[in-house]
Write a structure and sequence with these properties.
The chain has two domains: about 160 residues, D-Maltodextrin-Binding Protein, domain 2; about 160 residues, D-Maltodextrin-Binding Protein, domain 2, CATH 3.40.190.10. The chain has 14 helices and eleven strands. The strands form two sheets. It has a six-stranded mixed β-sheet. The chain has a five-stranded mixed β-sheet with strand order 2-1-3-10-4. Bound molecules: calcium ion (CA). Calcium ion binds next to loops.
Length: about 375
């Protein structure tokens, strides 16, 4: 006791000279003075530069990461076509042409058919449910396993919520109206349309307007009112159909080149994990806040005709969707595990959401 007191007093007396704790540089040490290593990355996207919602999200992500990292992670964002074409993003990041990309997993369906399940599944999970599956239901581990052979690390980085069924220049009154319909629609939804008699076309966002204007396609889906208004799709189509059966809550993705990812210290990796989670939520918040005002503008100011798809059309699309998705799962062992995980989570979450989200929305 006495000894302790004496030591303490001695420390107090010497504090002004040396202190008593082991020497620890307090802001002015050699470590703090070392120059910071700056990682200058390119982030390529599938979106037109700064397109509201989809295109502004990766810009915000880059800005936030620069601030969070005190400038150590300096990411320059490129729109589709600036460095590589929209549909070349996956390969370009895989090969290291850019360190990072932002897009949607169903755009790589030609290369990895089952990847579409990490964007969206027709009649599948909504945004809230996708986030639950990816981050707490095993989905993210499967996604990383799927992209690992391509040297890519995927991260959920945005969600639009339930989309609109799309823009048409004729009414859809029955299944007969889908026959021969040439429509821009990506992912598993495109395959469903094909089996229902239509012709799906894959086009990046920047080419949708011109294709519809010139008659190269008869119809298109894009996202929802806020994003579709920005593309001026109402000037080239008359009817706006809902609901977006084919995209009930698509996840947008960031992909990071694995070598670039491994080159980062743990704190910068953690910043990317957290910042992408934030942007994943932020995009959904923005669409949620802005969709209805945009819909009012489309209907009230531009005379857009809002229509619901007929019940029998929806019923047929639902039946065909179940077949298409199950067939995609049969492709290989990993595809089957992804399908099983997704469907098992969907079954569970649907059971609970029937008595929570759904019951509440019906009640209010
Ligand atoms: Ca879409």
């Amino acid at each position: 006791m006495l000894k302790t007191l004496r030591t303490s007093l001695l420390c107090l007396g010497l504090l002004g000279l040396f202190g008593c704790a082991p020497a620890e540089p307090a802001g002015g040490g050699a470590e703090a003075q070392a120059p910071q290593k700056v990682y200058r990355w390119k982030l390529i996207t599938t979106w037109p530069k700064n397109l509201p919602g989809l295109g502004t999200a990766p810009e915000r992500l880059a800005e936030q990461l620069k601030v969070m990292s005190n400038g150590r992670l300096d990411i320059k964002v490129y729109g589709a076509g600036e460095l590589v074409g929209a549909f070349e993003v996956f390969d370009a990041v895989s090969q290291g042409t850019a360190e990072m990309g932002h897009g949607a997993a169903y755009y790589w369906r030609g290369k990895i058919p089952i990847a579409a399940m990490f964007a969206t599944v027709p009649f599948g999970m909504n945004a809230q449910e996708m986030n639950g599956w990816l981050h707490y239901g095993g989905g993210m581990d499967l996604w990383r396993e799927l992209y690992e052979p391509f040297g890519l690390v995927p991260l959920a980085s945005g969600n639009t919520g339930v989309q609109m069924a799309g823009w048409f220049n004729k009414e859809i009154n029955s299944l007969a109206d889908l026959q021969g319909l040439k429509m821009r629609i990506p992912g598993l939804g495109g395959e469903v349309l094909q089996r229902a008699g239509g012709t799906p076309v894959a086009l990046p966002g920047g080419e949708v307007f011109t294709a519809l204007q010139t008659g190269a396609i008869d119809a298109t889906e894009w996202v929802g009112p806020y994003n579709d208004l920005a593309l001026a799709l109402h000037t080239v189509a008359k009817y706006y159909y809902y609901p977006g059966w084919h995209e009930p809550g698509p996840t947008l993705e960031s992909i990071v080149n694995k070598d670039a990812w491994d080159s980062l210290p743990a704190d910068l990796q953690a910043m990317i994990e957290v910042a992408t989670r934030a942007i994943n939520d932020d995009m959904l918040s923005e669409f949620t806040a802005r969709n209805n005002a945009a819909l009012r503008t489309l209907v009230d100011e531009h005379g857009v005709e809002l229509r619901a798809l007929p019940d029998d059309v929806i019923a047929e699309l639902r039946t065909v969707s179940a077949e298409v998705v199950a067939e995609a799962a049969a492709e290989n062992e990993l595809a089957q595990r992804i399908y099983d995980s997704y469907m098992s989570f969907l079954e569970d979450v649907r059971a609970y959401h029937e008595i929570s989200e759904q019951a509440y929305i019906n009640a209010r």
